[in-house]
Amino acid sequence: MLSARIAVQQLQQYHPPLARREGLRLDFNENTSGCSPRVLARLKEVTGDDLARYPARGPLEEIVAEHVGLAPEQILLTNGVDEAIHLLCEAYLEPQDEALVVTPTFSMFEIYAAATGARVIRVQCNIDFQFPVAKLLSSITPATRLIAIASPNNPTGTVATRDQILQIANAAPSAALLVDEAYFEFYGDTAIFDVKAMPNLFVARTFSKAYGLAGLRIGILAGSREQMPMVRRVSSPYSVNAVALAVLPAALSDAAYLSSYVLQVTNGREQLRQELRRLGVHCWPSHANFLLLRIGERHREFVAAMRGHGILVRDRSSDPGCDGCVRITLGTTEQTDRLIATLREVALDLKLGREVPA
């Protein structure tokens, strides 16, 4: 009888709660106002002939490379960050290897690494979800072949500094170090230029968050000239679809749209933080487009109550170290005003937190 590999049989499947998402979407860290109008205009120009051809990503990789300040051979366009993670696991992990994953974090790091048969070692964040650089360095062994770090991290919003990243890269020269910068636009600091000097460093970015292209599935994997040819060997030449490639230049060209949205999000992030402080609801500092709140034992009631008011938020209580926690995405100024008004009502109804001076 046919059976899947043991490593695959033992995987815990990831089930994102994508059903019944009617309302204000503050649950998946998506762009809540949609993509640039330039993208929509370009979509209307896509023809049947465009869709009948196999997609060619090479010319777009040149455009993206210029946009981020790297050479084309250092850039690979991927089917979102998910494919970038998958490719690195396929390129560098053997069943006898070890992969280090800082937790809590994006679930696909562990899933793709474990699917190769490699041993996944979780390194828990420090108190208040601070990046555990000392614990991570002490976990590196000769068997370590992959290290996955999200910065800013999901669901916590915390970051690893560039100095910490370089320290880890130098400490594990035989391991592929992946830095997932999916929320880069809301943070601003990056390690992407260090791929020029660090042959084991890879940086991933996405157009799913700030750019509003989550439905088109397109991302970036950047790495050294020495290693990117190996990653390309395990990559399908057609994994990024023609529509995503067609609209990408339009998305990149609308800097004003991007900066306006990012500014609304970062301002809203601080506005929400201040409101949570007034309500006496704890949250952690975030460099991403969301905040992680500690609701406590009524976290499920809170999520349901917010849904009842037409606002979707994400229960993260099952993540390591996140018991009783809920994550809320920030959007436009108008959406943040609505969120805060609803939050006040729900907090009062559920008797959450306490009133404290502003």
Order of helices and strands: HEHHHEHEHEHEHEEEHHHEEHEEEH
Number of domains: 2
Architecture of the largest domain, according to CATH? 3-Layer(aba) Sandwich
Q: What gyration radius follows from the Cα positions, in whole Å?
A: 21 Å
CATH top level label of the largest domain: Alpha Beta
CATH superfamily of the largest domain: Type I PLP-dependent aspartate aminotransferase-like (Major domain)
Unreliable stretches, pLDDT < 50, 5 or more residues? none
- From the N-terminal CA to the C-terminal CA, the straight-line distance is 66 Å
Q: Strand portion, in percent? A: 15-25%
Main structural class: alpha/beta
Total helical segments: 13
